[in-house]
Amino acid sequence: MKKIAVMTSGGDAPGMNAAIRAVVRYAVRNDIQVLGIQRGYAGLLDEDFIEMDFSSVGGIMEKGGTILRSSRCPEFVRKETRQEAAKILAKHGVEGLIVIGGEGSLHGAMFLEEEQKVPVVGIPGTIDNDIAMTDMSIGVDTCLNTVVDAIQKLKDTASSHERAFIVEVMGRSSGYIATVAGLVTGAEAIVIPEIPVNYEALGNKILKERERGKINCIVVVAEGAASAYTVARHLEHRIGYETRITILGHIQRGGSPTAFDRLLASRMGVAAVEFLKRGNSYVMTALQGGKIVPVKLDEVLKQKKSLNMELVELTALLS
Predict the structure, then answer these.
(1) Among 206, 216, 236, 308, which is 20 to 30 Å from 167 by CA?
(2) E-assigned strands of 131-234?
């Protein structure tokens, strides 16, 4: 294999740059040329390629976002579009493709190899930690640290004014961020897609806490479960607190990646190139039991990663 390409696609996640850096430098050390595809699948269709070498990835590991930029590409769901993408890759002499992204991006990679026989390796990069068969995805740890830092600051002002804060975090189909952030910040409650919320029971619980002398309240809401405004509307007249709403939004995607994410991304980037070198494509790099292993893309994408309900129970037990 003489030439590969790397792209980031879909929602950005802290640590993607560290993965790009690892892919490029390990490939170059193995005499493999690397093309960077800018703006994901849309950039692939536009032939928006740049040549990458050691110097082009210098100093990027500590930066959030992705230097290759990213975008959504709805037209990639069409087989004809994927066929055109394969022709473009062949035209540029690309013999293997590394795709860094979430579920949608990995689906695109899977179809490229299934239909067009383009060797692909996926690297899971998504803050939601909703990709099956890997313990963690790139960006999750940094996102959690960002959310925890924000909640701790909100608790300071909540205590000063004896208020309740409804904090909305990302998690369209997974309550992982809300659950872990709620657990480690001592939130009074979490509202997640996996469990229907009983507002009457939740309100009574918070009111009881208030009556025994609690001076602040934090409720962490995953965006896929409910709007923070909806939760506040159900609770504010029941819980004995003046209520405020904070939606953390896209601040959760940004920031310099943590040491964990930099390490995970570096290991996965090197592994992705190594898998392509060995002819082991149609796989995703996965963290399992501390090791980076290849797992088949179709097996990953036919599963839905379940939230560990022990964490949910622990959150309720300790709140």
Answers:
(1) 308
(2) 163-169, 189-191, 217-222
Tokens linked to 220: 């962490």
CA distance 305 to 224: 15
User: What pTM, to 2 d.p., does this model score?
Assistant: 0.96
* Structure tokens, 275: 């898998």
pLDDT digits (tens, 9 = 90+) for 33-50: 999 999 999 999 999 999
Domain 140-252: homologous superfamily in CATH: Phosphofructokinase domain (3.40.50.460)
| Residue of 128, 130, 141, 261 with catalytic role | 128
- What are the boundaries of each domain within the chain? 1-137+256-300, 140-252
Tell me whether residue 292 is annotated as binding. no
Instruction: Say whether 53 is catalytic.
Output: no
Q: Contact, 167 vs 154, CB < 8 A? A: yes
Q: Does residue 65 have a known ligand-binding role?
A: no
- Which fold would CATH assign to domain 1-137+256-300? Rossmann fold (3.40.50)
